[in-house]
Design brief:
Helices cover 47% and strands 23% of the residues. A five-stranded parallel β-sheet has the order 2-1-3-4-5, sandwiched between helices. A hairpin with a 5-residue loop joins strand 14 and strand 15 (394-395). It has three domains: 4-134, Rossmann fold (3-Layer(aba) Sandwich), CATH 3.40.50; 150-259, 2-Layer Sandwich (Beta-Lactamase), CATH 3.30.450.20; 278-437, Alpha-Beta Plaits, CATH 3.30.70. By secondary structure, it is α/β, with parallel strands linked by helices. It contains 13 helices and 17 strands.
Length: 440
């Protein structure tokens, strides 16, 4: 749509001449004086069809050009004013430009082509003013919307380092509002040290022109010493000639509750995973988990040509413990026995409860001789570590051990366990409290 321009002059010949020369470029209207021009602008504003520009003569009877333009600007602030003056009024026009009252001035007699380009520039200025107003309105709507949902809006000038934040930001962190408006004071200095490097990397990525969107989750220190989890999101609003951002806008969202919930879910999932993989009484790996780990170690031992041994263990005369001291006493013996086994092996070894009073150990990088020595050491440690029972009694414990090792390409976990169980049977029937070994 052709821009609407109002020509104001008390000389009809001037209006006629300008209309003839400029009519093909602009949608022109004319007014023969100040009051008529003000009325025309008021009607245009009321109709929602304001003028993009007005060109006004300086000297007119009744209401001069400066007064006319002042009243027009009051009615329609985005309408851009051009003044026509005589040579004697040049200084007055320059003062008006410096004060922001008019956009340009032209001295009579004027060049119509030059005047046309000036009006075109005024129309472009009008479009810019309207765009800035719409942007400001949209930003205000966004601010109000963000305030309603508890988010905070921010506007970062990367050239000056100024970061303007909404009231929601101060509420989120308990700030007073008297802090400096630099990005360092408002944001970066509040980031917890453990999160600072990741945030800096994300900011640098955007500032280097490697992305138009910024997004990072991190913790911030509140004014009362507490911490809040925040999601910072932003986008580039303006770029420099080098393609790097000069202005970014975005939001800060308090995600503390979400992160706490996620941590609770993660912790509960980990607890469930542990419960599913371990024996609840002793805390050792359960039978299923032990077999999974054993299968993995068998594959590794074959791949690298390493030794791998397994030890089956059975507490001697455990039924008598239950019959004499009850199941609580039996549980105390099982827990104490598990502690001795766990503390007596390497971190790389696997200790599991096979079932009842039977336990099983997996010893990577360990041949049959070394495994037998480990089993005998554990046997002596068990005998030297009596269990304190709930009824006040102290009970000495002994155990029998059966040892086997991985043998040959076709040997499987079940084969090792079978041989270890046979060796355990041999140890128990040879008098208990001893170690027996069985090879393929």
């Amino acid at each position: 749509m052709t821009a609407r321009v109002l020509l104001i002059d008390d000389e009809p010949l001037v209006l006629t001449s300008l209309s003839r020369r400029l009519g093909d470029r602009f949608n022109l209207a004319t007014a023969g004086g100040g009051p008529e021009a003000v009325a025309a602008v008021a009607a245009a504003v009321e109709a929602g069809r304001d003028f993009a520009a007005v060109m006004c003569d300086m000297h007119m009877p009744g209401m001069n050009g400066l007064e006319t333009l002042a009243r027009i600007k009051a009615l329609s602030p985005e309408t851009v004013a051009i003044m026509l003056t005589g040579d004697s009024d040049r200084q007055t026009a320059i003062s008006a430009i410096n004060q922001g009252d008019i956009f340009r001035f032209y001295v009579k007699p004027f060049d119509s082509a030059e005047l046309g380009e000036g009006i075109a520039a005024a129309v472009r200025q009008h479009e810019l003013l309207r765009a800035e107003r719409r942007l400001a309105e949209n930003e205000e709507r966004l601010r109000l919307a963000l305030e309603a949902v508890g988010d905070a809006a921010w506007d970062w000038n990367t050239i000056t380092g100024e970061l303007i934040c909404s009231e929601g930001w101060r509420r989120m962190l308990g700030l007073s509002g008297g802090e400096p408006t630099t990005v360092e004071a408002q944001w970066l200095s509040l980031i917890l040290p453990d999160d600072a490097a990741a945030v800096a990397d994300e900011i640098r990525r955007v500032l280097d022109g490697k992305g138009a969107l910024l997004s990072c989750e991190h913790r911030l220190r509140r004014s009362d010493g507490g911490e809040r989890w925040v999601l910072a999101r932003g986008s580039v609003l303006r770029q420099g000639r080098d393609g790097c951002p000069e202005r970014l806008i975005g939001t800060f969202t308090d995600i503390t509750e979400r992160r706490l919930m996620e941590e609770t879910v993660r912790r509960q999932a980990e607890e469930l995973r542990i419960l599913a993989a371990t024996d609840p009484l002793t805390g050792l790996w359960n039978r299923r988990s032990f077999l999974e780990k054993a299968e993995h170690e068998v594959q590794r031992a074959r791949r690298y040509g390493r030794a791998l041994s397994v030890v089956m263990v059975d507490i001697d005369f455990f039924k008598k413990v239950n019959d004499t001291h009850g199941h609580d006493g039996g549980d105390a013996v099982l827990r104490r026995f598990s502690q001795v086994l766990k503390s007596g092996v390497r971190q790389s070894d696997v200790v599991g409860r096979w079932g009842g009073e039977e336990f099983v150990l997996l010893l990577p990088e360990t041949d049959i001789a070394a495994a037998g020595a480990v089993a005998d050491t554990l046997r002596r440690q068990v005998a030297a570590a009596p269990a304190d029972l709930p009824d006040g009694a102290t009970l000495a414990i002994t155990a029998s051990f059966g040892v086997s090792t991985l043998s040959g390409e076709g040997d499987e976990v079940t084969d090792m366990l079978r041989r270890a169980d046979e060796a355990l049977y041999e140890a128990k029937h040879s008098g208990r409290d001893r170690v027996a070994c069985r090879v393929a």
